[in-house]
Amino acid sequence: MKRREQSQTEQLRQALAEREAQLQEARARLSALEDSTSLQVGRALTAAAKKPGRSLVRLPRDLYRLWRRSGTTNHSEQRRRGAEPIRSFDADRQEARLLAGAVGGASELLVVATIVGPAVQRALDPYIRPVPLRPHDSQIVMDGVDVDLVLVSASAAAPGSPWAHVGDPAAADRTRALHWVLESAASRGIPTLLLDDAPTAPGLRALDFDRIHRGDAGVPLHLFNPVAADLAEGPEAVFVRDTPAVPVPDTLNGLGAGVVDADAPDLADALRAAHVAVIPAHGPSTEALRHRAQACGTRFVAHDPVAEETGAVEGISVAVPRMRATALTADEQRTMLREVFLREATPVRLAEILGGLDFPPGTPGPELPLRGRAVAVLADPAGEAEAADLADALLASRLRPAEVVVPDTAGRLPGLQRLRAEGVTVRTARFSTPDTLEELTRAGERPSRVGGLGPDRWAVLAERATAPWSHLWSGPIGPDRLADLVCAVECSDADAVGTAATGPAAEVGERGFFDRPTGEQYVFVSSLTPELARTALVRRGWNPAEWNRRGTRLLALGPDHGPGTDGNAQGPAHNAADASTGAVG
Length: 585
Known about the structure:
The chain is of the alpha/beta class. Helix content is 39%, strand content 14%. The strands form three sheets. Strands 12-11-10-13-16-14-17-15 form an eight-stranded mixed beta sheet, sandwiched between helices. Strands 2-1-3-4-5 form a five-stranded parallel beta sheet, with helices on both faces. Strand 8 (276-280), helix 11 (286-295) and strand 9 form a beta-alpha-beta unit. The model is unreliable at 1-6, 73-93, 96-106, 436-451, 504-519 and 566-585 (pLDDT under 50).
């Protein structure tokens, strides 16, 4: 494993300690010299020579005293003061970043020096802490900022960008600057990565990258998602072309289809507005466009003019009207989005790419892109049967929770022991007062312990959680429910996700301007029954009925129809009365 050179602040601290040690050594030598007999004799002789009168008379007495003292005085040799201990780079790296005022003081994100195209930059922004490099300042930035990775994309060499034509002999200055960046990274043990996401000069691939990934950065769900798709306006069919030079088929012109380029900034809006997307059957961006269409909840048709002429495949003149006539159901839309979330989303792709790189000591880890998906399940099983249901549901989940937090009274139940045996972290919390039927009834909550905890008790469990998201477990859930909930927050950056609340608090007259009727999904609402929320929000102990008035973003998702449920995401014990009282669960 390569060893990274110490950061600039670390080097300054070590130099200061070394100078301090040298100063202490000089002081010790000076003190020893001043106390030496030779120096004292020299001073006495010098004083006698300067003032012969009285000094010559006193000289024999002073010399006799020095002779007597030299035989009885023990001149202890002062030990050299060692340099101030320097803490290791591994332990002090984040402090060095803060002292230097550099980007990336927090450890939640990888600090990445980027030379990427605008599309890759937009895709990676939520998952890394970028430090953009430009040809004229790349050396200054690399010397002054401690980064974890150098990331270059082939799309950065597109005409019009600061790194245009890098790798081409005609742009020798930019190629030389990039070569210096890679050499500097190699000398410090920083891995380098090239995303080969666009056609570019062969000289770029010939540079000394640690890894070259053929493909893009995955599907950024914060850009491509079905959120507010029913509000998008546009033609019902859209033709997506790789390059502007690709002609639009005459059949699509007759159907009134729109046209959008594959690298256009408004590609996501065009896909959300259309029922059908026509994409090229063969091309460098075919797979990426297919996954982006699925994430937006849009059906797609692969256009292959040669195969259509020979009759090998159904022509777009037939396929587009047929697909346009039948819209996707909510379950179909969610299924397509879920598969993209689990396999093709940007955090998954980024973690896959970084998994085999040789990171230097002190780097937080290549698993950080997926850290935002960590979920803590907060639960209060009343007995062995409910603990067994909890274990069955979580072990069958396609998105395994990072941890489970339960009251200390439930920590030894067999179901929780089974979760520990399967590698799931189980934490316990202690309530100051036990739940009683009278307390729950007085608070207006249902007297069932399944989902019957109040906001203050959910907050006690959330205090023990370390994951950024908390799932408020209140009954059996399907194997896809956790994945759908986390996918929803990754798409929308919402603070809480759940089913749209019903009852007096959710009447149409009290709903917000952008809220949709109950039953819609991937839309923001003014009230809901939360299933997944930010752990920091649950720790506040607020009533969920007040979350919207406190500035939180609430996203509605359709009910869970997975195995073990009765069509309600909150289990059979949940009903409309719970939402009207504002109980969390």
